[in-house]
UniProtKB/TrEMBL annotation:
It comes from Candidatus Woesebacteria bacterium RIFCSPLOWO2_01_FULL_37_19. Belongs to the thioredoxin family. DsbA subfamily. It holds the Pfam family Thioredoxin_4. One of its GO terms (molecular function) is oxidoreductase activity. InterPro entries: Thioredoxin-like_fold, Thioredoxin-like_sf, Thioredoxin_domain. Coiled coil: none annotated. This is Thioredoxin domain-containing protein. Keywords: Disulfide bond, Oxidoreductase, Redox-active center, Signal. It comes from the Bacteria.
Length: 178
């Protein structure tokens, strides 16, 4: 599974190790794992490409799709990773809100974005199609929970930062010429 031009990528875009996360911004476990992924992106900055795919579990997380739309729209203004972090950090504020759109839009505006473009992009067919493409890929890979992680196409289920780190180090050894 390779990153495409439309994917949200952090780390070294040329890295031989690709970590793909299928995430849901309303998922408490995804929020718990975000610091691990962030730490990996820093510790393995040269060796690891990290890709985030939208996988809102809308049947159990009623606000997840809206949050994914906000993230995609913010990304179009160059601040994807900033809103990504904020949505997880502020999850307790918006996740169970009956109408979180105002809060989510305000988080984006606090990043200095154009409100009209943001709202237009949130509701665009292009944004919907990008999210649906991620969901379809996740479905084809039998993703059934979030977060779901794949490293170079292999599904992994680390339970701690140490397990994550060991997996990346194992892959790194396999790609490093000694």
């Amino acid at each position: 599974m390779e990153a495409t031009d439309s994917d949200w990528v952090r780390g070294n875009k040329e890295a031989k190790i690709t970590l793909v996360e299928f995430g849901d911004y309303q998922c408490p476990a995804c929020a718990d794992y975000e610091p691990f992924v962030e730490k990996l992106s820093q510790e393995f900055a040269d060796d690891l490409k990290i890709v985030h795919k939208q996988y809102p579990l809308s049947t159990i997380h009623k606000n997840a799709l809206l949050a994914a739309k906000v993230a995609e729209a913010v990304g179009k203004q160059g601040k994807y990773w900033e809103i990504h972090k904020l949505l997880y950090e502020k999850q307790d504020e918006w996740a169970n809100d009956g109408n979180p759109r105002g809060k989510l839009v305000q988080y984006a505006l606090d990043l200095g974005l154009d409100k009209q473009k943001l709202e237009s992009d949130m509701d665009s067919d292009e944004t919907r199609d990008e999210i649906n493409k991620d969901i379809a890929l996740g479905d084809s890979l039998r993703v059934n929970s979030t977060p779901s992680f794949f490293i170079n196409g292999e599904k992994i289920a680390p339970r701690s930062y140490e397990e994550f780190k060991k997996i990346v180090e194992d892959y790194k050894r396999g790609y490093t010429v000694e």
